[in-house]
Amino acid sequence: MTTTDTVTGALLATTGLTKRYGPLTAVDHVDLSLGRGIVGLLGPNGAGKTTLLRILATVLSPDAGDVRLLGLDPTEPKERLEIRRRIGFLPQSPRLYGGFTPLEMVDYVAILKEHTDKTWRRNEARAALEALGLGDRMHQRIRTLSGGMQQRVALAAALIGTPQLLVLDEPATGLDPEQRIALRSVLAGCADEGTVLLSTHNTAEVSALCQHVLVMDQGRICWSGAPEDLAAAAQGQVWESPHDEPTAVRSWLTGPGNRRHLGTPPEGARVVTSTLDDGYLLVTRLAR
Amino acid sequence: MIAVLARAALPTSRAIRWTPIAGASALLLVAAMLTAASGRPADLLPAVAAAALASLLVGSLHDPAHDLLAPVPVSAMQRRALRLALMGGAVLLVWTALGLLAQTSPAATAVGSLLALAASGVAVAVWGPARTGVLLGAVVPVLWFAVDQAVPGGGLAADLVGLWRTDPWPVVAVALVVCLMGRHR
């Protein structure tokens, strides 16, 4: 299955992208074309999201297919180097140097991104940390920070240098609601400069932040479009009742004595407005 | 790139864990001093030191922030080379001090055997699995030393496992070629 997505003018394009680990095909013939804006990547655990993001961050090489990032070919060493100067990457569960302060950690990443001016680096690092709410913690040892704070330090490192392509693997993990809101503001600012591609399990994050959503399952992009269209995909197929429904393909408890169902509603069912969660559950169900 | 690595040298040196090498070096130097004071030859000490120091040198390749740093323009190979250069300087200082303190022949404390074990470990670390490569590489010097001690002398097997002592430079050359072949890993 192939899917083509267009937001506006491609900064990121793939054709037939495939990555295998032994008998497992983690990414299966993915075609993408993404321009400026924030793109959310939804999918269940093991769908291949992390592998896809690692390929798009030039960390992994695909087994088959073509990738163009910022108009460049990452398989060519010189072009890969240029891409790496212009991208930011947040891996899943990033680890940092506990003995560094956030300012030192972000500055170190900036050095490795070939930023030569120390004053510029320090100012950029301070700005990124302050934007993520770490202004008062930037001189504290990383090992003394909470998991959410460490996640934000790693995010600040990814943001350094105003990357044109920002690849974020579950950036909101470990963040409290206030920090999530701060993160949204920062990412919205980044989207003005280029493409932000983020994976998440949180559909609320996608509806609040993303102009475009991709749903991935079993290595394939099984749905692509605007978040409101994903919600609309389940319209007329969601209903609520206090008991189990045999015609439902999926049912779950939403509160005491109330169950939500997905599928073909029976006669007289109390059909409700579908949400992004409903749309996501439906398209991943249909993909199997 | 040299300028970038020079700029990264100080923070990289702070990112390396120095406690293991400091502890091992202190132990080895004390052992060398005690052996020298007793007037007995310290035949085994340089070999033990070579294995321990080589293992720690390879262990310095462990980078907790590897995932975060994976897509920066300075490649993993370059960052590893920087770590080896920084740690290697300290290891060579300790090795030289051991050579001065221990009552052994100059051949026993020649740097070739240390480099042969270290280079072999680095080659395994480069080609090993992403998560466990450094650990496997750090085991190589100790394992090679242990097997060398265990195999009885005189046969082909003893000659082969003793190569790191008897012909270290070909071992270094082969290991370096293996490392270079894996420079994009």
UniProtKB/TrEMBL annotation, chain A:
GO MF term list: ATP binding
Annotated keywords: ATP-binding, Nucleotide-binding, Transport
Alphabetized SUPFAM superfamilies for the sequence: P-loop containing nucleoside triphosphate hydrolases
Domain of life: Bacteria
InterPro entries the UniProt entry points to: AAA+_ATPase (IPR003593), ABC_transporter-like_ATP-bd (IPR003439), ABC_transporter-like_CS (IPR017871), P-loop_NTPase (IPR027417)
Domain ABC transporter: from-to ranges: 12-243
Family membership: Belongs to the ABC transporter superfamily.
Protein name, entry field: ABC transporter ATP-binding protein
TrEMBL record, chain B:
Keywords noted in UniProt: Membrane, Transmembrane, Transmembrane helix
Taxonomic superkingdom: Bacteria
Keyword Membrane on entry: yes
Transmembrane segments: 21-38, 44-61, 81-101, 107-127, 134-151, 163-182
Cleavable signal peptide: none
Protein name, as recorded: Integral membrane protein
Originating organism: Nocardioides astragali
